[in-house]
Amino acid sequence: MTELKLETEQLVEFEKKTKILIKKAGGLILNSFNTNKSLIKKDIRDVASETDVFVEDIIKKELSAIFPDAGFIMEEHVSDEQSDYNWVIDPIDGTKNYVALAPYFFTQLALIYRGKPILSEIYQPVSDQLFSAIKGNGAYLNGNKIEAKCRISAKESIIDVDFRGSEDSNLKLPIFNKLVANFYRVRSSGGMYSPYLVTGAFDAYVDLFRTSKFFDILPRILIFEESGLEVKEIELIPGKKILITAKPELVKEIEKIII
User: Fold this and answer.
1) What is the pTM for the complete model shown?
2) SS3 73
3) DSSP state, 2?
4) How far apart are CA 186 and CA 256, in angstroms?
């Protein structure tokens, strides 16, 4: 069996179509933002809305037409993975914010090849901001090429730390305290603002003992890397990985701080 291998030109054509699709999906989400929402409870705090499910169906159908040979890894439906190419869909990343009328959520999709993102789209429908990237082709915000202009010194930098709740807090608190002691400012948005690393809203993102869902992080990784940031995982404790995203110089400094 001959392996299917996409060229950059094909990805560019896919991206033209996925940009239209993700803005369409974001428009549907925005239309229902101020309405009462029917919820589907997943666990004690995790929910989905009927809009999540409805929009994911639409995205899947249209992505199937764009690239029929790819499988799917989805937030709200049963995934149908293929060996090489898969679409990753998260119709509303930040559903808890969305249902609480807080305008901090994104619609995300990515095309991955053997687990690595090669095309990404992240759309914020409230601000009408579309982050996009193709591997090897740069990162863009609303069609304009963007290069992250983050600071490279901790004492001058703002860092967003995802603490991930109380589990393993005895291990995470010492790391968190070291970051607080060394950085200019520390934020903790649960990773919700991480796409804005590329705009310079802050300078580094650290996910303590990363448990981010597959669909949350993959679209962002490609946009980070294509904007000139480094994405690195380190394992200080067996089975406990820390994800660091920043300029390469600051990644090295963060490693020194927390080790």
Assistant:
1) 0.89
2) strand
3) P
4) 17
For residue 160, which of 249, 93, 246 has the smallest C-alpha distance?
A: 246
| φ, ψ at 200 (rounded to 5°) | 90, 10
Domain residue ranges of the chain, discontinuous segments joined by +: 8-145, 154-258
116 half-sphere exposure, CB direction, 13 A CA radius: 7
CA distance 246 to 14: 28
Residue carrying the six token digits 């005895």: 170
The answer to whether 47 touches 40, Cβ cutoff 8 Å, is: yes
3-class DSSP state of 52: helix
Is there a shared CATH topology between the 8-145 domain and the 154-258 domain?
no
| CATH number at 154-258 | 3.40.190.80
CA 19 to chain centre: 16
Find, among 151, 112, 146, 115, the residue nearest to 225 by Cα. 146
CATH class of 8-145: alpha beta
Q: pLDDT tens for residues 59-103?
A: 999 999 999 999 999 876 656 777 799 999 999 998 888 888 889
